[in-house]
């Protein structure tokens, strides 16, 4: 389908702005069947890297369905393209960089340093450039609402033999090619869990003269089950079936629960390998054979199960038949990344099992998947992370790609003891023309009566401190368990702030003690703001907004009254109108997000929320500068 519109998310534009519109960047995006090309983010070109390998390297970190799709050029569209750019968009290199056959080009308006109002599309086959409408889309409109996310998790076996370490890179490459051929052959099927839908690739030759009525093929893909290849991918949701539940008499109900909305759910996919009769010799990889080698020297044998964990982000409006190529593309990308990971770390760490970790740094509309070797610490991988931060134009002053930053999928969140990010989904604050500045990243909600511990009426500051600690944990700064009340008390005793009898007591703590514990347990410093009364908090809008924009950490507020956690502010600089996003630790109920939001335990509060007669101390943790 012809592209009629290029949509660029504001996060991608901010990445371009960070270089003052003065650097050539790779555009990362996705196509959809509505005549749109979506620009999701940008990447830098690798220094000194072969251009023909550039797309392979960038794509290895992207979900299938997301790809290198174009270039931002620091010039006007009227300026002739440089020989460097022409090298990228013509010939064999262009086919590797832009396999879709077209290149989106964005240009700079050189007069006032902004994007030109029009994009261009360059067709590789004809060499023609044509103008196309360009629209900037707010990051608040999530691209995920128009895609269906699939997660392929399976183990594939890798077995090889080598005589000398120097042979390993070639041996790994051969194994990669073998597994790639196996996973894209017609003998491999992809089963969408909780459905009877099987997706596979079409054989090169139609050797079978008969086929089941429930199996059909299109575009080199086979679709078995209740859907035809021409159905839309979003139609898969109508055939999801909940796991069968026993009714108490050993009989499962197996009722279907139809879901038609794209609500961020992730569909699991398993890889199935066909075996047995009816396969050609080339197709059946499971027939036992005897291998003989005549090497007089000892051969080394390596056997490893590779834990594939592949994300596919598919346009919901695309035909189901497109899933076959997306699934195959995803697993082949990850196999290649795993092969590179094993070879790269072999010399220093011997054979390390590659593990896929998914990340979603703030500002990106898509996931990044990074393969890390098991058993190698985050500290030893700092150089790798630094390179990735530079490549994908991520902030250089905070950890975003440590293992602790791993993205938590919806089903994984449901298994958590504590609720995460309870402010998400709240209605607007109501401040006219206000600017929201809120906590950056993730935290968990800690409140009275959790952990089977009764701290009602005295433990609110402890719970607020636990929420602050959870932020540092979930942002990847350190790996530790959230401190209990007793551990918090012991930390204050250890620094000489309290006497030994304080441990196990029900004594309150305040903002100063919270700051002391953060420094003692996490080595985090804090800024303390003293406010003589609640009315004076109305004057702190600008200062708090700056904190959330720069530091991004939750704020504990205590003093002469009960403690709370401030998660953000909505502030109108012209009128001074201000509201606070408050997380209240005094809640004593269960982990029910609807109750917590509807009853105001997490919500926007006006200045009148604070006691006019009480003083307040605010503890503003300062984020460490590190990767």
Quickly describe the structure.
The chain contains 13 helices and 24 strands. The protein has 627 residues and is of the alpha+beta class. A hairpin with a 5-residue loop joins strand 7 (118-123) and strand 8 (129-137).
Structural class: alpha+beta
Gap between N and C termini: 43 Å
Low-confidence segments, ≥5 residues, pLDDT <50? Answer: 205-215, 245-252
Strand order of the largest sheet: 1-3-2-4-5-7-8
The tally of domains stands at 3
Helix content: 10-25%
Taking Cα atoms only, what radius of gyration do you get, to the nearest Å? 28 Å
Mean pLDDT: 88
**Percent in strands:** 25-35%
Describe what this molecule looks like in 3D.
With 627 residues, the protein is of the alpha+beta class. The chain has 3 domains: 5-140, Cytidine Deaminase, domain 2; 146-205 and 213-244 and 253-275 and 298-396, no CATH class; 435-621, Cathepsin B, Chain A, CATH 3.90.70.130. It is built from 13 helices and 24 strands. It has helices spanning 10-17, 51-59, 83-89, 91-97, 168-183, 322-349, 382-391, 410-414, 460-474, 485-494, 511-522, 541-550, 593-598; strands at 5-9, 25-32, 36-43, 67-73, 102-109, 114-115, 118-123, 129-137, 147-162, 188-192, 198-201, 215-218, 221-224, 266-273, 300-315, 354-359, 368-373, 435-438, 526-531, 555-559, 564-571, 578-583, 602-605, 616-621. The protein has a 7-stranded mixed barrel. It starts with a strand and ends in a 6-residue tail after the last strand. Mean pLDDT is 88; it is low at 205-215 and 245-252. Belongs to the peptidase C78 family. One of its GO terms (cellular component) is endoplasmic reticulum.
